[in-house]
Amino acid sequence: MSDLEDLYKEVILDHYRTPRNRAKIEGADVHLHRDNPLCGDEIDLYVDIEDGRVTNVGFEGRGCSISQASVSMMTEKLKGLSIAEAEELANTFKSMMQGEDAKDEDALGDLLALQGVQKYPVRIKCALLGWNTFLEGVKIHNEKHGS
Ligand code: ZN
Questions:
Q1: How far apart are CA 129 and CA 131, in angstroms?
Q2: 141 Cα: distance to centroid of ligand 1 (angstroms)
Q3: pLDDT digits (tens, 9 = 90+) for 37-71
Q4: Cα–Cα distance between 52 and 77 in angstroms, integer?
Q5: Is 79 strand, coil or helix?
Q6: CATH number for 108
Q7: CA 123, CA 120: separation in Å to the nearest integer?
Q8: Ligand 1: centre distance to CA 33 (Å)
Q9: pLDDT tens, 64-118?
Q10: Distance CA 143, CA 76 (A)
Q11: Cα 35 to middle of ligand 1, angstroms
């Protein structure tokens, strides 16, 4: 098990050190700033949505490795998904972090690296910050566009 945990740690550190899609998107359809005061994590999430599909995702942020790696992995996963697929993935990820067995390991992929965080309840909020921000952003967007 320790080899696997080391591998997972590598995945998290890689995303923390070299965040993917770390960029502001000017005029994004969704822009939300959210934080996790318990840990001091902050993100700005930018999402472009076209014809019910996530066409671009970017973020800016600072905070612990778990929060920043999780949002970096999230941006890679969400690009190209339909809103319904993206919400489903977010909910699958959330249930994994809340201690359920990972239902769809293929869909989660690298995100399984964060499963070990569920052992540290105070860090779960760190891992979920990006995802909750995304779900909230989609909800606001849908309300605005009446779908
Ligand atoms: Zn944190």
A1: 6
A2: 26
A3: 999 999 999 999 999 999 999 999 999 999 999 99
A4: 16
A5: coil
A6: 3.90.1010.10
A7: 6
A8: 15
A9: 999 999 999 999 999 999 999 999 999 999 999 988 876 788 889 999 999 989 8
A10: 25
A11: 9
d(CA 124, CA 76): 20
DSSP 3-state of 64: coil
User: Domain range holding 95?
Assistant: 3-145
DSSP letter (8 states) at residue 29 = S
Number of domains the chain is built from: 1
Q: Give the distance (Å) from ligand 1 centre to CA of residue 128.
A: 10
Query: What's the first-to-final CA gap in the chain, in angstroms?
Result: 45
CB 30 within 8 A of CB 10: no
Residues within 5 Å of ion ligand 1, judged at the Cβ atom? 39, 41, 64, 67, 126
What is the CA(40)–ligand 1 centre distance, in A? 6
Structure token pair of residue 59: 């973020």
- Ligand 1 centroid–CA 16 distance in Å is 12
Helix (H) or strand (E) holding 78: helix 65-78
Cα-to-centroid distance, 67 and ligand 1 (Å): 5
